[in-house]
Amino acid sequence: MKTTCPFAAMADEINSICAKTFQKIQPDGSYRRTFHAPLIANLEGELEIFSAVPTPYRLGLFLEPKTYKVTARFSSSLFANENYPDARGMALTIHAVSGPVCEEAPEGEHTIVTINQPTFIARDAEDMLAFMRKMDGVKELTPFNVAPPTYTFPSLNPLKARWGFVQAMLCTLGQAFRRRDITQYQYNSLSPYRLGTSAMKYQFRPASTPMGKGRTLRERLHSHLLQTDLVFDFFIQPKTLATDLVDDLFQVWQSPTHLVGRLTFPVQDILATALFTEGERLSYNPWHCLQAHEPLGSINALRRVVYKNSALRRLT
Ligand code: HEM
Q: What GO molecular function annotation could you give as one example from this UniProt entry (predicted)?
């Protein structure tokens, strides 16, 4: 007997709002990604998994030391105008991995989807649905309407306020003013993934000196990669503390992190590769991954339905 996902109805409602409000038909009749449509660059690289992964974590992707080919997509979350405060995304597909994958996932692919913030705009699936309902029907997204006051403060009771949303927004604002170089951000999965009988989060920390010059994020990345490799240290954060919660993306976990590998984008002319344009037909879905690292928590349950349908609408 097939079990029904307890978040199926929420996911369907969010999917309808995505189709109506966020993934609008373009003037040429095409559809773009529902979120993270503004492309910074599609890149080719390598992910090395180190031999020194601590024993209890040597499973799935971390079973053995190995170097994998990766494709990656850097994006802005909502706005094509880089002067607007916005989260930046780094989505990775790791190719030719071994092991069973999640249902409907392509064989041999392991995807990791990250953004340059430590927390999300919704604590859990219920919050996400509340946020999407507030945004439903908005004609055009602007920095002024993406923070609906009645989502942040659903009542006059300050104890019921979504302070985690305020924290995520302040972080986006801070990043926008402090640093405008995507080679220098830390990228976090925010949501947890299976690791043995427990959970983990992924992190990529910048490990190369900024070299890029230029006006835009893409120009600076292009200039960086013409001169030198772009490198990130790859960490996992296994959940070892009972106080770290699986279903609370407002929370920053306190469990220790472990260096497990290195992500390298070798020198390349990002504007000259076929991937630069062809990459827009790829889909980075957090459920396209090894079963050993299955996405966990209610937000990830929603993502299973929403990413699939976003890709179906734009690619068929
Ligand atoms: C853990 C929190 C999340 C993170 C880190 C995250 C990050 C990202 C990133 C980086 C992308 C761009 C992928 C690409 O370049 O192809 C993306 C796309 C997308 N995200 Fe999320 N996201 C999160 C949560 C959510 C949630 C809660 C939803 C909705 C319920 C959502 C819906 C989408 C959709 C529809 C796409 C476009 C997928 C496609 O058309 O291929 N995301 N997300």
A: heme binding
